[in-house]
Design brief:
Shape: globular
Helix content: 10-25%
Strand content: 35-45%
Order of helices and strands: EEEEEEEEEEEHHHEHEEEEHE
Largest sheet: 10 strands, antiparallel
Radius of gyration: 19 Å
CATH class of the largest domain: Alpha Beta
Structural class: alpha+beta
Oligomer: single chain
CATH topology of the largest domain: Cathepsin B, Chain A
Number of domains: 2
Number of helices: 5
CATH architecture of the largest domain: Alpha-Beta Complex
Number of strands: 17
CATH superfamily of the largest domain: Cysteine proteinases
Length: 337
Amino acid sequence: MSAMVPLVAAVALLQPMADRHSVTILPEAWERKPLADGRVEFTQSVSRAFDQAILSWNLESGWASADYSLTAFGDGWRSADYRWGTWFAGGGSVSVKGQPDDHGRVDTDTLVLRRPAGGLTVRVVATPRSRSSVPSSPGLVAVALSLMSRHERAAAPFGGVARVIEVPRRAQMAYPNGGVLCSPTATSMVLGHWARVLRTPFVDRDMPLVQRGVYDAVYRGCGNWSFNAAYAGSVPGMHAVVGRFNDLADLERCIAAGFPVVCSISNTVVKGQPPEPNDGHLVVLVGFDESGRPVFNDPGRNVVRMTYERENFRKAWATSDNTVYLIWPIGYTPPWL
């Protein structure tokens, strides 16, 4: 990746996520400690209430790999150092199984706590490509935080603009073992979109390239949310993080500003059916029609371009607690900042 442009000078909440979710992009001011084996440890703490967290990163090009972990703390307690795994710039990255303790557990890419914490410490241990040229920071690191509300949110009326962004249409079943490739296919589509907008063909990545880049050898699949953001953010000129939005109004602002969003949904609930086990699915929101129904590039459909009922989508998206991949070019100011 090209040299990382500092995104913010201080901790920033991705607006307008204020009451239930937030995404904290950590500043470049890390506490830095060289280790005896040539690696460098970076740490940073943030005070913010949460009971779920998703860690995402865009590793600087000067690093060959990095280990990521997060510690939660509260009034008089501190959790274990929960590991997200090791990210290798050239592929072959791995998450960490298990890790349950008295305070919580990590489900591949999501920390789920037993009770709300008051803050967190992020730790990155990075291995440089060369000891003669060691970057001063690990690059962009973001944490999607949730403080779960325990009641159903009322559906809001459509308040956006009717428009459809012409994102390239790609179907996962066009590839071998396509039934489990929705996530890298969705990521590929958004990268393809920005390649067109920027007129930079090298940003476009065909699905097999994304598949190899995001594959998690422990999870044995390509659906690790953190790894998809890390791969998209490794493309020169691009940023990417995992986020959690409050409601459809956040998505409406993205579409109005011209930013497609990858959404994690239930593949059965979105069709108006009861949820089924392991029915998680990734789709690309590309617009809204005049009545406020969301329009998608659905990689699981041969037609790809689909329109879903607004309420069905709201319920289907809620099964992931409104998780999104946010992918955008360096130098652009998206509506969530």
